[in-house]
Amino acid sequence: MADHITIRKAEGTWTVRAGGAVLGESQNALELSEGDYPSVIYFPRDDIAMAFLDQTDKVTHCPHKGDATYFSVVTKSQTLENTVWSYEAPKDGVARIKDHLAFYTSENIAVEKI
Predict the structure, then answer these.
(1) 3-class SS string, 27-62
(2) Contact criterion met (CB below 8 Å) for 68 and 55
(3) pLDDT tens digits along 39-96
(4) HSE value, Cβ hemisphere, 13 Å, CA-based, for 37
(5) Taking Cα atoms as reference points, which of 75, 65, 71 lies closest to residue 107?
(6) Residue 19 banded pLDDT, cuts 50, 70, 90
(7) Domain DUF427: where (predicted)?
């Protein structure tokens, strides 16, 4: 793993909401810290209502984590494009985030410890 990346169990229970709907709640989330960036909470896929997510064609590459695939969140009132990402085949040093999803927070998406 890159020296500037740390992955640990996120303490407590975490939730993610979009458009007023709860997309997921987890006591098994991971917290990834990377250098000076804000920490990111990664939710296990099993704890997310995948029916709200549509995979898109967007792919980005991180030299430390690998290729990220993206999903849009579909709510009753809107589609939030490419607001979720996942590393389907992460590099060995960050393998713990496989089968996990992370969310860009905004006025429409909230990731909170409850």
Answers:
(1) CCCEEEEECCCCCEEEEEHHHECHHHEEEEEEEEEE
(2) no
(3) 999 999 999 999 999 999 999 999 999 999 999 999 888 999 999 999 999 999 999 9
(4) 11
(5) 75
(6) confident
(7) 15-105
Three-state secondary structure call for residue 63: coil
- Distance between CA 42 and CA 77 in Å, rounded? 25
Checking phi first, is residue 20 left (phi over 0); if not, alpha (psi -120 to 50) or beta?
Answer: left
Helix (H/G/I), strand (E/B), else coil: 90: coil
CA distances 86 to 18, 20, 42, Å, are 17, 23, 9
- Walk me through the domains of the chain, giving residue ranges and CATH numbers: 5-113 (2.170.150.40)
Confidence band (pLDDT; 50, 70, 90) for 35? confident
Q: How far apart are CA 43 and CA 63, in angstroms?
A: 22
Inter-residue contact 5 to 91 (CB < 8 Å): no
What sign does the dihedral 15-68-44-91 (CA atoms) show?
negative
